[in-house]
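hey team, just a heads up i'm posting the complex here instead of the shared drive bc the drive is being weird again. everything in one block, sequence lines first with there labels, then the predicted structure for the whole assembly after. its two chains so it's a bit long, scroll down
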Amino acid sequence: MRSFDYRRADSLAAAREGLGEAAQIIAGGTNLLDLMKLQVMTPKQLLDINRVPGLREITETENGLKIGALVSNSDLAADPRIRSDYPVLARAILAGASGQIRNKATTGGNFLQRTRCPYFYDTSMACNKRQPGSSCTAIGGISRMTAILGVSEHCIAAHPSDMAVAMRALDARLDVADATGDVRQVGMDELYCLPGERPDIETTLAPDDIITAVHLPQKQSGAVHVYRKVRDRASYAFALVSVAAIVTRREQRIATAALAFGGIGSRPWRNSEVDEMLAGEVPGEPLFAAAADRLLAEARTEEGNAFKTRLTRRTMISVLREATGLEPASVGTDRVEESAA
Amino acid sequence: MKTELTVNGVSRDLDLDPRVTLLDALRHHLHMTGTKKGCDHGQCGACTVLVNGRRINSCLTLAVMHEGDQVETVESLGSPEAPNPLQEAFISCDGFQCGYCTPGQLMSATAMLEEAKEGWPSHVSESLSNPGTLSDAEIAERMSGNLCRCSAYPGIRQAIARTQGDAGGKS
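-- predicted structure starts here --
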């Protein structure tokens, strides 16, 4: 690890003052410290925000739920309101990492974790995300864990998060404080950039922005939530493909559908055209197949990840069957019930 | 950088480079070598300790971040003369071969049993609201952050299942 100055902020104002060009915020640090050990990231200053008060609460608001940026992944998945009203989020978090990591990893940090593309981690390999302009070794290389949607000729890295996939399906919105202390809201559809020519620029946030909270909309009683993750081993592995689905029904028809995907996109992936195709229709195989075709129409594959188009299609159709009641629910499919009160 | 760490209830004053992980502070600065370094990247779980009662990978956190926190290591559990019930169960169930991962397994299981008692669900729980008892599959899933290269997993799961009953875990 390269040496750095360590400072602790005891308030958001202090954190703002401490954030310059060279400073990097540390919260859980589970991804950052790993990258610093490998010298993939070499910040000159670390600013520890773990003692900033007021960022560890989950509170009910007029419009839903507000989750502080420092709420741990464990606490978020275990919260009774998340389990009953936003089960796709609890399931997605529990499908990721290990018990130890979830205890340390934070909500805000999870959004900003870096890709696990092996070439990004190997400093002896060219990587446009690590070193802009150096080229991409993953293209034509070992690409099993890379993306097939939203990729460019400069980068095919996949976004690794499970949590963010559920947040994308839930239309979560982030509170982001800028350098002056003004807080703006950033939607999940506005947070991440496509790699394009600059895969090193991953989000629309400025270097001195701080994520302070995440807002979830009101619960939708009667909605069926599904999180399905397909991976190379049964636990503690990143997704080859994951699907988050939130489906509501009106009589025999799908009323609304929100589908988001992990493991296949350069960012937590959602295609509103897919959701719109499903809304108002009678669920069934031809509809699901057409929706999968729409999702995968722009897929761009490598030899090593071409299997993901079929795997995504099958996983998506299987999830839709359960979400619409054509198949009985398995573990990972939960219904949001009316409030008991 | 001056840092005060509380380890197994004892306050210790250290002067550390900020780069020193909690794991290296324990092993190299406090000479408490019960906590093991396996991968040093958070993948194997050999370095698991409890911080304020929660299990974490001590290799993936900086010692200077833990001023004022309560750190518990394997040295707090029992002794060769008086092992605690979980340690006894690991012995009687053959929950190890080489033993290198065992301190991490023990600390992880200690905290995991508390998580289960609090009703936390896991990835394999059928019901999120009522995860129920710790089945073999539940124990395997909840312990997936601890690798054992000798593959003593059946004994490890059995030892934890046995302790769950003894310790009054959810039944």
